[in-house]
Amino acid sequence: MKKRSEKKEDVEKLKSDLARVSTVILTTFQGITVAQDTQLRRAVQGAGGKYRVVKNTLAEQAGAGTSAESMLKGLSGTNSISYSTDPVSLAKVLTKVAKDVPAFRFKAGVVEGRVLSIAEIQQLALLPSKEELIGRIMFLLQAPARRSVSALAGVNRNLAVTVQEAVKAEKFAH
Questions:
Q1: What backbone torsions phi and psi does residue 53 show, to the nearest 5 degrees?
Q2: 3-26 as b/e: b if 16+ CB within 10 A
Q3: Which of these, 2, 49, 133, 155, is most buried using a 10 Å CB contact count?
Q4: Which residues, in sequence order, are CB contacts of 60 under 8 Å at separation 6+?
């Protein structure tokens, strides 16, 4: 059993983590196996987030003064939290785990200070990732430049074809 000072350190560490992130998702993990829990932790870390099983009173203390405060008040049952600065990646990973492991369920979430329902978390998982959006924007920004280059190249190509046809037809005087 942890000493009071260790618990206090844990609360302070969690509080500083929660203050730095924009997304916190509250879940229940009762009934998942150790292997599934390990897989879950690795998946969340792969998405740039953190996953922790929390005691309800310690979570409430750590959440005080953060955007997750309202969600972490008055918790009951077995709870875990996942948090990250990228809401879409975290929601995608957790939604995939929830589909694969029925015992893992969402309870609530907070993104940028706004409390989300379970349905909203699942909707968030459907959004394209940050990298996908950047790729789409880059494609759209490059498209006009590609069209301009094609149009300019077409003028030169057409001129060359016209001159070549004129030479074949002996339209130029020697």
A1: -85, 130
A2: eeeeeeebbeebbebbeebebbbb
A3: 49
A4: 72, 73, 74, 75
Inform me whether the pLDDT recorded for 14 exceeds 70: yes
State how far the alpha carbon of 70 is from the alpha carbons of 53, 80, 109, 154, in Å: 18, 16, 10, 62
The CATH class that applies to domain 4-127 reads: alpha beta
Could you say which DSSP state residue 128 is in? P
CA distance 68 to 48: 19
Token pair, residue 154, equals 């077409």
Q: Is this structure's pTM higher than 0.85? A: no
Residues in the chain: 174
Tell me which amino acid residue 167 is: V
Give residue-wise pLDDT tens across range 128-172.
Answer: 777 787 887 888 787 777 777 777 777 777 777 888 887 887 776
